[in-house]
Amino acid sequence: MLEDKTRVPHIDWSDRKFLDESAYNPIESNGHSPRYVLSPWSECSTTCGPGVRIRSAECVAAHPVAGMIRLPHSECQDQSQPSLFESCEARPCPLQEDSKITSEEAPFKWENGDWGPCSESCLGGKQKAALLCRETASGRAVPWSNCDARTRPPQLVRQCNQHACPPQWQVGDFGACSVSCGTGTATRSVRCIRPLSRSGGEFSDIYALYLIAV
């Protein structure tokens, strides 16, 4: 026979991570509503010619006791996520003395392709964009060796699957029987939890109960 002995209410704030907001530039917020804060832009990925610079975004909210806390990205879903990549160019690259053609006339060019699969199914993973070398005239992909390695752009990486993981059961072992002979009881804990981090050490209780075996 199984009995539900105890219920623990959902924990809203105690398992949240703290965030030092001083390193971020906040986007316009509404009171204590979840919002995105952005890190400064990185340096341009190239010292000359076209490149890419990146920044990170965190979903945060103001808590009356704990201060600023970090939340899963799913809690900022009512806001449009700001762009994390933008093109940049520190300065034009000098022309090579032995070059007879401009970059527009080059027979092969680098190009970022489709995004690959996300590395995680929840709580945030990473996606990499395929880097391609294309023949300018036909547009078909060719081996990298055809493109100029000196102008190869960095591979783009972005965050993905920022939503929370689904709940899961956490079941403990049965303890000792309450009697040494005859009919007794043994108990174990069963918790329904929602992981809050990939390390496995942070989670919130959805509810907990004790199972009694007779």
Fold and architecture overview:
- One of its GO terms (cellular component) is extracellular matrix.
- Its main location: secreted.
- Keywords: Repeat, Secreted, Signal.
- One of its GO terms (molecular function) is metalloendopeptidase activity.
- The chain has 214 residues and is mainly beta.
- A hairpin with an 8-residue loop joins strand 2 and strand 3.
- The radius of gyration is 27 Å and the shape is elongated.
List the helices and strands and how they pair.
Layout: E1 17-18, E2 25-26, E3 35-38, E4 51-54, E5 57-63, E6 67-71, E7 85-88, E8 108-115, E9 125-135, E10 141-142, E11 157-160, E12 168-171, E13 186-195, E14 203-213
Antiparallel strand pairs: 1-6, 2-3, 3-5, 4-7, 5-6, 8-9, 9-10, 9-11, 12-13, 13-14
